[in-house]
């Protein structure tokens, strides 16, 4: 059912995608529990559907819940936790809240740098995302510094 919901989303069949994803989320919550990884993935997927429709507040609420639960269950440095943090940062940015997005992106970047190394592709993606957030805030020097670091790291 979850896969079909994502297929509907990819086809632009938003109403069907949302209805099916909500059903999956409710069934997972009932059968597996609210903090089960499958339930959290379903919630994150529903948030993506909401984001695609510009329903930012609803997406944010789900992403915050998933992030907090994953931090408790998996830890702040788990890849699934970092993914939802990045999704939440994007949601905040799209709501005109770049300062909040920046704080999440800094946290993600620091964790990835520590866990994966300064030259890991996921860390460099985090650095690029933060640079874009700096650009949106007209923090040109900060953005340039990060962008140069990304380019220099790619050269080596």
What name is given to the CATH topology of the largest domain? Answer: Serine Threonine Protein Phosphatase 5, Tetratricopeptide repeat
Helix content: over 70%
- How many helices in DSSP terms? 8
Low-confidence stretches: none
Give me the Rg, rounded: 17 Å
Output the structural class.
mainly alpha
**What is the CATH-assigned architecture of the largest domain?**
Alpha Horseshoe
Indicate the mean pLDDT.
93
Largest sheet: none
- Note the overall shape: globular
List the secondary-structure elements in sequence, H or E: HHHHHHHH
How many β strands by DSSP? 0
**How far apart, in Å, are the first and last alpha carbons?**
45 Å
Percent strand equals: under 5%
Can you identify the CATH class of the largest domain?
Answer: Mainly Alpha
Number of domains: 2
Protein name: Kinesin light chain
InterPro entries: NLR-like, TPR-like_helical_dom_sf
Organism: Penicillium steckii
Could you give the topology of this structure?
Elements: H1 2-10, H2 14-32, H3 37-52, H4 56-74, H5 79-94, H6 98-116, H7 121-136, H8 140-155
Helix pairs in contact: 1-2, 2-3, 3-4, 4-5, 5-6, 6-7, 7-8
């Amino acid at each position: 059912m979850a896969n079909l919901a994502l297929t509907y989303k990819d086809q632009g069949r938003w109403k069907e995608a949302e209805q099916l994803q909500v059903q999956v989320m409710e069934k997972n919550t009932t059968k597996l529990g609210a903090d089960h990884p499958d339930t959290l993935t379903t919630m994150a997927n529903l948030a993506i559907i909401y984001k695609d429709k510009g329903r930012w507040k609803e997406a944010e609420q789900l992403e915050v819940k998933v992030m907090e639960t994953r931090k408790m269950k998996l830890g702040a440095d788990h890849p699934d936790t970092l993914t939802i943090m990045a999704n939440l940062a994007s949601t905040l940015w799209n709501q005109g809240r770049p300062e909040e997005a920046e704080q999440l992106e800094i946290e993600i970047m620091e964790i990835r740098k520590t866990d994966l190394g300064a030259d890991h592709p996921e860390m460099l993606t985090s650095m690029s995302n933060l640079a874009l957030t700096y650009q949106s805030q007209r923090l040109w020097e900060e953005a340039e510094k990060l962008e140069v670091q990304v380019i220099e790291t790619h050269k080596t």
